[in-house]
Amino acid sequence: MLRVLRHRLAIALPLLIAITPLPVVQAGELQLALANSTCAAMQRVGDLYRASHNVELNYTCKSSGLLAKGLNGGALHADIYLSANRRWMDFVVDHGLVSLDRVSSPWGNTLVVATPETGGIQQLDWEDLASDEVGTILIGDPSTAPFGRHAKEALKASGLWERVRGKIETRKNIELLAEALGESGPGTVGILFKTNLTQRLRPLLTVDKRLHKPIRYYLVPLKSAQGKPAVTDFLDFMHSAEVQAIFESEGYIVSGS
User: Fold this and answer.
1) Bridge partners (DSSP) listed for residue 50
2) Orientation angle between helical segments 86-94 and 64-73, nearest 10 degrees
3) Does a structural domain hold residue 21?
4) What is the DSSP letter of 118?
5) Residue 134 is part of which domain span?
6) 130 close to 238: Cβ distance less than 8 angstroms
7) Tens digit of pLDDT for each residue in 35-92?
8) What is the C-alpha separation between 97 and 232, in angstroms, rounded?
9) Does residue 70 sit within a domain?
10) Which pairing describes strands 136-140 and 201-206: parallel, antiparallel, or unpaired?
11) What distance in Å separates the CA atoms of residue 90 and residue 213, rounded to the nearest whole number?
12) Beta strands in the chain (DSSP E)
């Protein structure tokens, strides 16, 4: 009888192992706080990363200032912060949320003036923003959105700000501005990053980079994420040739740092 039981067990055990589901390996999770202007490119990066990593990526895309304030106030929690300008990166450094020596700046951008694809304005010089041909100028909120801060800086440096401020309308983030500009009528232009032009928009001119501070992006892990292996691995990936190629294809100015 004992010999029979052993024989049956020898047959049944491999079958039992074959049909017993393997334990599910829990995916890692990363919280990414991203400047709105980088969200589309970062989602492409995330798709590429997840193709070879068992990790869940959660994206929070807002203006750099709103992200920085949220991180500092505790309303937002993140493992990695990506800012569209130095001012808000300095803010999180000064408040002890990140370490300055962990900050990198891999990409830049270009500021352009654009109009709706079906708009009436066909050509425009920078000085023409003050002309009757332009009735409304959309920019980002300079208090929190870096692309709006750069636009205001360029207008002030060229002496146009006081002449056009009555035409200025602001939007909280670059996606809202691109959407509003695409739906606007003749006589409306917007100042935004080149990388956020949509098919509904037509660029009219590139803003002279001498009129504003360099447009750079700043990437850093939060101190609260120290010791999290997934953070280190993801940041290494962010500086890879594959990721640089994605940002370059999106129109960013790519430079190692």
Assistant:
1) none
2) 10
3) no
4) T
5) 111-211
6) no
7) 999 999 999 999 999 999 999 999 999 999 999 999 999 999 999 999 999 999 999 9
8) 17
9) yes
10) unpaired
11) 15
12) 28-35, 55-62, 80-83, 107-108, 111-116, 136-140, 168-171, 188-193, 201-206, 218-221, 253-254
